[in-house]
Amino acid sequence: MTTFDLNGKSVAVEAKSTTTLLDFLRVQLGVTSVKKGCEQGECGACTVLLDGLPVTSCLILAPQVDGRHVTTIEGLAENPLMKELRNAFMENGAVQCGFCTPGMLLSSYALLRDNPHPSEEEVRAGIEGNICRCTGYVKIIEAILDAAERIAPE
Amino acid sequence: MRPLTGFELLRPRTLVGALEIMATLEEAQPIAGGTDLIPTFRDLGCKPGNLVDLGLIPELNYLFEEGRYVNIGPTTTHAQLQASNLIRERAQALHDAVDVLGSVQIRNRGTIGGNLCNASPAADTAPPLLVLDAEVAVSSLDDSRWMPLQELFAGPKMTTLDPDELLTGIRFPKTEGSGSAFHRLCRRRGFTLSVVNAAAYVEREGGTCRSARIALGSVAPTPVRINEAEGKLEGKRMTGALIDEAAEACREHVSPIDDVRGTAEYRRDMSAVLVRRALREAWRRAGGEL
Question: DSSP character for B17?
């Protein structure tokens, strides 16, 4: 039995060693905001926060989250920083097909949580593990900088 | 959903427990961050057998200085190293490497011991550790020994570890008046293997280079030290022209191959370019002028 905290709720489920955290979340637990892209840890669409840090869930085996905290965008629905990020993404046109968006939001959230006033260069480095094939990143970077300004105006 | 197949996951909580598993179970394969290992499971014919997860073993995760050594536990993540002032100050080349290695997600998961034991010729932590004169501790149930890092590498994706052995420590000496740097070349910043990577270390005495070490990755079957180029610097007055000469010498002492990431010829040229950059930066960091 694998027991862990998913978005603030304790979950106890039988998890096979050969199941990735990504499949475990999507198939067994129905958390489909976590997207399956490359399954190589390159695209970042499957990003979740593990004890608060962004990781690619395709490279983690489900039993390895035993006793840990896993957060997806659902767990941050009411979070003030995530709300600002969501609004900034919408208003800046940072979403096109939307496939990268949950992972992109989680990476952006972790970035702004730890560094509320990032430079553009730091924003680029913060989302380097998340591939977007639509936007060309310009609007995503603008949205993150915009959210940073909204959450902590100088 | 394409499930992975064919392995069991074991999660020992002590080092001795992990070493017992390594000694007794067939096809025991250690796994730390899994960032290099898990993608290979989907390859046809890859049968890991018993995966031994080292992530719950506190004895393998540490970072401290003691006496003349900086000590790093093998399951220390790249993100932990990146955030460490000790590494920033005492191992600049290693800090440069973990700053650009992988992506945020990979650095949060991938470990330094995993990067070394994966034994990729392109491993970004290898050239910095080679120029820092690192040693690695290798342990089995019966024995534990320190050996130079270079002796860990046997070939592309191959180490000299016996099936019952684990990498249990990494250490390198601290030297006053030294500086080091790491440079690499790759297709894009996030998550891509280095086409060539290079690290340099120098010890300065006034305007003279007392000692120099140069290492390159992705230009030979294993990461390599280039002793011939180091010899051109040692005991000499450091100048830009001397650095150029040492960097150019690296061309002749690498044996790169053509592959999807670059041609051998390009790698040979870039070896000189990256070593020049790394040497200049290392010298500047040691307080030297050019």
Answer: H
Chain B: nearest CA to A8, how far in angstroms?
A: 21
The C-alpha atoms of residue B28 and residue B42 are separated, in whole angstroms, by 18
Residue B2 lies in a domain: no
Q: Could you report the predicted ipTM of this complex, rounded to two decimals? A: 0.96
Does A70 share its domain with A84? no
Interface test with A, best of B46, B104, B186, B191 (most A CBs within 10 A): B104
A152: confidence class by pLDDT, cuts 50, 70, 90: confident
Q: Beta A69-71 vs A2-6: how paired, if at all?
A: parallel
CATH number, domain with residue B240:
3.30.390.50
Q: Using the predicted structure, report yes or no on whether residue B90 has a pLDDT greater than 80.
A: yes
Q: How confident is the model at residue B45, as a pLDDT?
A: 62
- Inter-chain contact B39–A39, Cβ cutoff 8 Å? yes
Q: Which two tokens stand for residue B158?
A: 């191959």
Domains held by chain B: number = 3
Nearest chain B alpha carbon to A36: B1
B residues 215-234 closer than 8 Å to A (CB): none
Read off the pLDDT of residues B130-143 as tens digits, 9 standing for 90 and up: 999 999 999 999 99
pLDDT tens, B222-260?
Answer: 999 999 999 999 999 999 999 999 999 999 999 999 998
Q: Which domain holds residue A34?
A: 2-75
Is residue B44 domain-shared with residue B119, that is, in the same domain?
A: no
| Shortest CA gap A130–chain B (Å) | 9
Whether the CB of A64 is below 8 Å from some CB of chain B: the reply is yes
> Which tens digits make up the pLDDT trace of A1-53?
999 999 999 999 999 999 999 999 999 999 999 999 999 999 999 999 999 99
Which of B139, B173, B207 finishes a domain? B173
Do B82 and B162 fall into the same domain?
Answer: yes
Helix axes B240-250, B264-285, angle to 10 degrees: 150
Count of the separate structural domains present in chain A = 2
For residue B9, the surrounding DSSP H or E stretch is strand B7-10
DSSP H or E segment with residue B154: strand B153-155
Q: Kindly list the residues from chain B whose CB atom is less than 8 angstroms away from the CB atom of residue A111.
A: 104
**Residue range(s) defining the domain that contains residue B122:** 59-173
Same domain, A90 and A143: yes
